[in-house]
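Demo today. Your pick:
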Amino acid sequence: MENAGLFSVGSPGEVDLFFSRRIGIGDNGNIVPIVGGARLSGKLNRTNVGLLSMWTEDVQDNGIEENNFTVARVNHEFKGRTALGAVFINKEGLQSDNFNRTLALDGKLGLGRKARMSGFFSKTFDQNDTLNAHSFKFQTDYNWNNWELRAGYTEVGQGFNPEVGFLLRSAFRKPEGLVLYHLRPKNPDSKILEYRPHISYRGYWNFDGFLETSFLHIDNHFEWKSGNELHTGINFTREGVVDAFDISRGQNVIIQPGGYNHVESQIIFFTNRSKPLSVNLRSVIGGSFGGTRYQESITGSLRIGDKFNSDLSLQYNNFQLPVGNFTANIVSSRLSYAFKPNIYLQGLIQHNTSDKLWAANIRFGWLQQANTGLFVVWNYNVLDNGPLNNSFIIKYTRMFDLVR
């Protein structure tokens, strides 16, 4: 966790060039034993450096060989909110000639106090010598006199394959933009702290010029001085389906190829999250794949002092489509208790009715410094037909200062 952001390059949640959970987990979610490894990270004046190398065992039943994972990262910070960096990510098979490498340059350029440009360019290499194995993103942000403006473009080539990274979707071209205005009433007696009208857009095209996803969002946020907020919006959506797929995960609701254009409304309301008791409500109703989708969720949060925090969430999804109807519900609960600032117990329990999966994660932590110390973790996953990927882990880490 310490200095984890140093190794993060790409577009978070969409094109992550390095995703540490790839180490120790196979393509199908099966566990791959980790032999060991080492990591070095820190800062030399204005230059951030990071080096990580891990070895994993083979899993013959799943056709996984022994591998070495290596990540080298450097990033130099200049004056004026400007930086330039590079990363090298390598997965090397130790029993064959298999390899997968990612090279990338990234940076940001500060343009005064109001504007900034940022982006990255990356390529992957493997033994197949794949064409169009590139990805890049360029984005410009401009903040001035209560205005927020953003424009960006992301592209992921058909052959781009970061095996130690994460792709939300592959092979796309994506333009996006945002215009938002912060309006605060000048009347001191107003109960409204701020209005935030805005409009945003993102679209995903494949390399044949087919629009796969489009999302135009028009919204206004109302924030009261009490800390309560109300978000009202309307979304204009499009989903382009190239190949038929089962949206219901086994309930035989098959979406057919074609283009689906719809409109949906959304309302979000939440109370002051700094209070001991808070509530979050979300409702989305609108068209979906030629039919209608109803999505309702509620989350209740309870906080007792600085020791106990808990959340209980319920999410209801109902699809009424021309090809069939189905529901998918998720129930989850999070609990956290801090015996001391550096000693805590955390728990997560979740149930997914669509996958028929129960999952639990219990973690005890006794921190020393920089998120090092003792960790005891229990993971329990069970389907209707039996247990799945259960584990009990004890981990102890300690940091040593080699250079003073």
The chain has a mean pLDDT of 92. The CA atoms of residues 16 and 130 lie 20 Å apart. The longest strand covers residues 324-340.
